[in-house]
Amino acid sequence: MPKTISYEMAYDAPVEKVAAMLADPTFREDVCAYQRVIKADVSIDVDGETKQVRIDQVQETKGVPSFAKKIVGDETNIVQEESWTSLTHGDVTVTIPGKPGEMTGTAVLEPTADGGTVETVTLTVKVKIPLVAGKLEGLIGDLLLKALQAEYKVGRDYLSA
Asked: Residues with Cβ < 8 Å from 59, sequence gap 6 or more?
């Protein structure tokens, strides 16, 4: 059964400033650096309020349980793509090329009463490997949560600078 995760990031900045941060390649590269990725290629195409974001990164799988390491190896390539159809709504897809699974969902920016913004990312993790799918979906969900927590920390620092 697929696993769904949802994570809220509350920023002390208006929606426009948070959207601009999410469109800044330097911010995305800083998030990758904070997560200690081995290699990252960030591309962002902006057209008015819409944007296409692609982050192709390679991460070590240190600390991953042995049952999962047999499937992903010592390093894993992760491709995150975001298609923002407006300033406040993006469709998110995360894939691990060559591996049987995917994560899909949304990122939504909402203004708060005090002039800030809440970004809510909701992703569903699906792995197509009999017997271990549930364990892998849980593991991937936990790793995604850690990645979102890293993005939130870097985002708060970025917006306070």
From this structure: 35, 36, 37, 38, 75, 76, 78
Distance of CA 79 to the CA centre of its chain: 9
What is the torsion angle, in degrees rounded to the nearest 10, for the CA atoms of residue 22, residue 30, residue 98 and residue 144?
A: -70
Domain membership of residue 146 as a residue range: 3-160
The model's pTM: 0.86
DSSP alpha helices (H): ranges in 95-132? none
Number of other CB atoms surrounding residue 54 within 10 Å:
15
> CATH no. for residue 121?
3.30.530.20
Q: What is the pLDDT of residues 58-72, one digit of tens each?
A: 877 666 666 565 666
Phi-psi region of 48 (alpha: psi -120 to 50; beta: other; left: phi over 0): left
Number of other CB atoms surrounding residue 80 within 10 Å: 19
The DSSP-derived string for 45-57 is EEETTEEEEEEEE
Task: Check the CA dihedral 43-27-51-126 and report its sign.
Answer: positive
